[in-house]
Amino acid sequence: MNSSLNDHATTSAVPEQPAHHEPEHERAAIAALGHELRALVDATVRTAASPDTLHRVTDGVRSLTRQLTGRRRARAEIPSVDEFPGGVRMYSPVTGAGSPLAPPMRVTPADGGVAGTCVLGKAHEGPPGYGHGGMSAMLLDELMGWACVAAGTPAMTVSLQLRYHRPVPLDTPLRAFAQVTGVEDRRVSVGGVITTEEDHATVLVAADGVFVSPDPDRARALFPSLPGT
Ligand SMILES: CCCCCCCCCCCCCC(=O)SCCNC(=O)CCNC(=O)[C@H](O)C(C)(C)COP(=O)(O)OP(=O)(O)OC[C@H]1O[C@@H](n2cnc3c(N)ncnc32)[C@H](O)[C@@H]1OP(=O)(O)O
């Protein structure tokens, strides 16, 4: 596993003369835009600005969107800056430093599995002040996928069972942990939990999942642009 997955998450400086086709420079630029877009999303869901202001900002955002021109990636295309499976995914909605949707969660190896740290904001809200249950599921699903990669068996979720013990607080450092608990041929059993960073003993959400590694023919069909498939 590439443990530097999210080292780009906090990068905010764009080189003055980015060297094109250098992945690290591209990733820094992607992460810088992702960072600003997440700030925009956060400001958008927290603001109490007047309708006039919202209309003015809408016009500004529309003109910015028009600047993202050029070739668009095809549906199943893997970005050149990514390392799939098992490495950097710049636009992952969970870990991607370039995603306006991602917290983004930082993944590192830990205690026989993988740990993920992040803070959920107002954009991830379910009950007022707490995280959406679907966000918890998404964090755990992704991290459990990373646990499969770390165990040497990249695999896809076929079932995910969640138990919500306590609400997950917003604006609070969180820690998720996932580990493989069993492997039977292509079937991988994985467990995961979410706690706060402050209190690892109080489980907020627990998950049990079954993941299956696609056989080579299925992998080729699902991911035609994956080198080696
Ligand atoms: C190159 C590989 C890359 C993979 C990397 C992924 C990275 C993901 C990134 C992370 C993103 C985060 C994560 C995400 O978001 S992953 C996205 C959400 N998940 C999906 O989209 C997966 C959708 N499902 C499928 O495409 C297929 O089911 C796959 C391809 C996974 C397996 O299709 P296959 O045709 O092989 O199987 P099946 O579907 O007929 O049946 C499944 C059933 O069979 C059991 N079973 C099957 N085989 C074995 C076996 N050998 N030994 C023991 N048991 C086996 C299996 O447990 C299940 O049991 P049950 O239902 O009866 O209880």
TrEMBL record:
Disordered: annotated segments: 1-25
Compositionally biased residues, Polar residues: 1-12
Coiled-coil positions: none
Protein name per UniProt: Acyl-coenzyme A thioesterase THEM4
Domain Thioesterase, first and last residues per copy: 129-200
Keyword Acetylation attributed: no
GO molecular function: hydrolase activity
UniProt cross-references to SUPFAM superfamilies, sorted A to Z: Thioesterase/thiol ester dehydrase-isomerase (SSF54637)
GO terms for biological process, alphabetical: fatty acid metabolic process
GO cellular component terms, A-Z: cytoplasm; membrane
EC number(s) stated in the UniProt entry for this protein: 3.1.2.2
Cross-referenced InterPro entries: HotDog_dom_sf (IPR029069), THEM4/THEM5_acyl-CoA_thioest (IPR052365), Thioestr_dom (IPR006683)
Chief location category: membrane
Keywords, comma-separated and alphabetical: Apoptosis, Cell membrane, Cell projection, Cytoplasm, Fatty acid metabolism, Hydrolase, Lipid metabolism, Membrane, Transit peptide
Catalytic activity of the protein: (9Z)-octadecenoyl-CoA + H2O = (9Z)-octadecenoate + CoA + H(+); hexadecanoyl-CoA + H2O = hexadecanoate + CoA + H(+); tetradecanoyl-CoA + H2O = tetradecanoate + CoA + H(+); (5Z,8Z,11Z,14Z)-eicosatetraenoyl-CoA + H2O = (5Z,8Z,11Z,14Z)-eicosatetraenoate + CoA + H(+)
Pfam families found in the cross-reference section: 4HBT
Subcellular location: Cell projection, Ruffle membrane; Cytoplasm; Membrane
Family: Belongs to the THEM4/THEM5 thioesterase family.
Species name: Streptomyces regalis
Cross-referenced CDD domains: PaaI_thioesterase
